[in-house]
Design brief:
The chain is an alpha/beta fold. It is 49% helix and 15% strand. It has a domain of 207 residues: Spore Coat Polysaccharide Biosynthesis Protein SpsA, Chain A (Alpha-Beta Complex), CATH 3.90.550.10. Strand 2, helix 3 and strand 3 form a beta-alpha-beta unit. The longest helix is centred in the N-terminal third of the chain and has 27 residues.
Length: 362
């Protein structure tokens, strides 16, 4: 008697179906964002960068400021202020020599996170109508400030947050940091992010506020204890009835977030738990699911499912303008990225996290 072939076991069919659904949602979101996610554009109207204060919290950032501060000072802002947050290197000397205004940060106040406390002091010291907070490792290319001001005017947003184009130079950087772009562009459709009281997202690397909005919220005091202050700020902006806008930095604003794999692990671990609502079990489950959807098809030689993951990564690089050969080569590592993320999870689920020489309870 010939044995009947019932096909793959139910568990395999279920996993394959879930994987297909997962990629259908993510690729669909990418398609929507390809047409709707704003990109910074060259200003064609007389945008006035002189209305803006550019504000940089800096703690041991001399190595970054040497490279990023000169083009930032050339943007034509009303002022560029660097707050020295108890640096032990030559941050103060470098910033002053290059021509920025430098202020000394006050000792960390109780109940505050280092960055939010530094930004609160910067906001109080600034004179501009627009307050633009940016990290010391962010690269502002010619015309960037005019493009940001023009985008703020176009959207009439109270807060405009920019996602800089990543500049990954070593293999260690490429193992994890590209996931930052993938998360925002493949999970959050831009039209949804613009709706009041809907999902909110932002990037603390570049946060441009209208002063009226910033003061209405109470400045950084409204996020003083938050390790993931950018997303919380975005929620506060929407909750106050103000408009939130996002844009990709493309050729105008870039960033080299980390310079090695260990740095990437420490940096991403700082935000991993807050992104999962502070729930360690949710972070672990999500990482396991990522391995099921991305890595398992590779182990099972399911070429079609592997191709969907590669297509997603390729689309993200096209959207962000990361199309050099070395950047496109990162796509080949996509199925293994959940494995590279395991040390991030291990670091994040500990009771305390360390960042910029300070420890925080999580």
């Amino acid at each position: 008697m010939q044995r009947r072939d019932d096909g793959p076991p139910f568990a395999d069919r279920l996993i394959n179906g879930l994987t297909l659904g997962f990629f259908a949602v993510k690729l669909g979101t990418l398609l929507v964002n390809a047409f709707t996610f704003p990109r910074l554009k060259a200003a064609t109207d007389p945008a006035r960068p002189s209305r803006a204060s550019i504000l940089i919290p800096a703690r041991d950032e001399a190595h970054n400021l040497r490279e990023t501060l000169p083009p930032l000072l050339a943007q034509g802002a009303l002022e560029v202020i660097v707050l020295d947050d108890s640096s032990t290197d030559k941050t103060v000397e470098v910033a002053r020599e290059l021509g920025a205004r430098v202020i000394s940060g006050q000792p960390l106040a109780a109940g505050w996170v280092g960055k939010t406390w530094a930004c609160q002091q910067l906001g109080q010291a600034a004179h501009g109508e627009l307050l633009i907070f940016t990290d010391a490792d962010v690269h502002w290319h010619p015309g960037a400030l005019r493009a940001v001001v023009a985008e703020l005017e176009r959207t009439q947003a109270g807060l405009l947050s920019i996602f800089p184009r990543q500049d990954n130079r070593t293999l260690g950087e490429r193992l994890l940091t590209p996931q930052v772009d993938t998360t925002i562009l493949s999970l959050f459709p831009a039209p949804l992010l613009r709706l009041p009281y809907a999902a909110a997202a932002a990037n603390g690397q570049v946060m441009a506020f209208r002063r009226a909005t910033y003061e209405k919220l109470g400045g950084h005091a409204c996020v003083q204890a938050e390790l993931l202050e950018d997303v919380t700020f975005a929620r506060r902006v929407k909750g106050a009835g103000e408009r939130l806008s996002l844009a990709l930095g493309r050729e105008f604003i870039g960033v080299r977030m980390y310079q090695s794999y260990p740095q990437s692990v420490r940096g991403l671990a700082r935000s991993a738990l807050p992104l999962h609502g502070g729930r360690r079990e949710l972070l672990v489950v999500n990482t396991v699911l990522q391995a099921v959807f991305y890595t398992l098809p590779l182990l099972r030689r399911q070429r079609g499912l592997v191709a969907l993951g590669l297509l997603e990564s390729l689309a993200v690089r096209w959207l962000t303008g990361r199309n050099r050969t070395s950047e496109l080569a990162e796509v080949g590592m996509t199925p293994l990225q959940p494995l590279f993320y395991v040390p991030v999870v291990w670091t994040a689920i500990r009771k305390r996290t360390r960042w910029k020489g300070r420890e925080y309870e999580v």
